[in-house]
Amino acid sequence: MTQTKPPILTEDQVRQWIATNLSIEDFRGKRLLLVVPDATRTAPMPLLFDALFKHLRPVVSSLDVMIALGTHPPMSEAQICKLLGIDEKERPRLFYQTEFINHEWDNPDALLTLGTLSKKDTEAVSGGLLSMEVPVQINKRITDYDRLLVVGPVFPHEVVGFSGGNKYFFPGIAGPELLNFFHWLGALITNVGIIGVKSTPVRDVVNMAAKLIPVERRALTFVVTSDGTARLHGMFYGTPEDAWSNAADLSAITHIKRVAKPFKTVLSCAPLMYDEVWVAGKCMYKLEPVVADGGELIIYAPHMHEVSVTHGKLIKEVGYHCRDYFTKQWDRFKHYPWGVLAHSTHVRGGGTFENGVEKCRVQVTLASQIPEEVCRQINLGYRDPATIDIEEFANREDEGILLVRKAGEQLYRLQ
Torsions phi, psi of 106, nearest 5? Predict the structure, then answer.
């Protein structure tokens, strides 16, 4: 039976939903920290922040905002204002008591160690794939607050199955060790094996770590439309586990598109918010399941100049390769950050490495401002974006050619 998407909420309905479902008495007198995504997620953050601020600021003792950057670059004051829909001129007058906090994943002094996942824990949760002790670290500023409120969308996700919920703590505002551990665990399972799957070992790791947080956790999760307009199909509030679970069920209806047969060529267009391969890789993750063996996926991003601001140097050393390229040469690569290796194999997709020869299932090509010599260096194909006419790829599904005009958030699967 085909499931139909729920209706789209109006702005008034969103505000009323928040006023009805977030009890003022539950927040009265509390020091509140909102944990929100950066600008690489489609979300109506101006509407949600305005509604939450007007509803809760009069009763809480403080209300600050932390950007769950993971390892993404920090945002400027102006960028955060734009993200939240705040007029910069109004910032000093209306929001002077609200602190904006960029997470600092790479600053040990900014982190608090909550505990450790034991070898027994990691063996059990990974089904024996990994066995190691992993410290659980988080931004230490959380202890300045009485309640942490995650405000973020849920989408199919290449590492954890579906994004959102406690993922805004780990890796959103976490230290690098746990991030590297569970990203590599996701890579071992593979993108195709984990994306769009609700119950995954990586989600178990995230939830296990979140239980160590000594501050009360809540989440306002939501599911946006698949047309890129950031309108909402649904909202859920409660514990991060429950709110995420409900949103993931709705995301599975909203964000997964099933097709009858694979495509030999996919033009996967990166939106402007994907300004480096580190995030534009989502254009591959969401479409890998429907690219035919030996086919080509083109990440079309004429605005993109960077491989990764944070991790570019390491990626250029490692390159993009299938999982087995790393696992069968583990002594050569195990000292690199596992999160970088995971990103590499997620972008490159499935393949084999036998007798020193790598055979990837799909050709991944960049059509961006990244020069051809860099693309070859990192083991990706190159196309000059100026030679691509998007419309030449349109309406050719019967020929085995697929155009996705805003890629990265809707997952494509075979029926």
Answer: -100, 15
Chain CA centroid to CA 334, Å:
24
Q: Please indicate, yes or no, whether residues 278 and 135 belong to a single structural domain of this protein.
A: no
Q: Do 63 and 143 sit in the same domain of this protein?
A: yes
Among the candidates 239, 254, 269, a domain finishes at: 254
Whether 66 and 79 share a structural domain: yes
CB 64 within 8 A of CB 56: no
Residue closest to 251 by CA, chosen among 159, 167, 153, 169? 153
* Overall number of domains in the chain: 2
- Answer yes or no: are the C-beta atoms of 217 and 152 closer than 8 Å: no
C-alpha–C-alpha distance, residues 363 and 344, integer Å? 14
Q: Is the pTM of this model over 0.85?
A: yes
Q: How far apart are CA 374 and CA 316, in angstroms?
A: 8
d(CA 68, CA 80): 12
Residues 278 and 230 in one domain: no
Residue 28 falls inside a structural domain:
yes
**What is the C-alpha to C-alpha distance for residues 288 and 364, in angstroms, rounded to an integer?**
10
CA angle 204, 198, 239 (to 5 degrees): 65
CATH number at residue 68: 3.40.50.11440
Q: What is the CA radius of gyration of the chain?
A: 21
Between CA 72 and CA 172 the distance in angstroms is 9
Residue pair 51/165 in contact (Cβ under 8 Å)? The answer is no
Q: Which two tokens stand for residue 286?
A: 């969401």
Residue 283 and residue 239 share a domain: no
**Mean pLDDT score of the chain:** 96
Pull the structure tokens for residue 414: 């075979």
In a domain, 342, yes or no: yes
Task: Quote the pLDDT of residue 3.
Answer: 62
> 195-228: per-residue pLDDT in tens?
999 999 999 999 999 999 999 999 999 999 998 8
Half-sphere exposure of 334 (CA within 13 A, CB side): 6
Q: Mean pLDDT throughout 388-413?
A: 98
Is 2 a domain residue? no
**186 Cβ contact list (under 8 Å, min separation 6):** 158, 159, 160, 194, 200, 202, 342, 346
| Strand stretches in 24-106, DSSP E | 31-36, 62-67, 100-102
Q: Out of 224, 254, 284, pick the residue that ends a domain.
A: 254
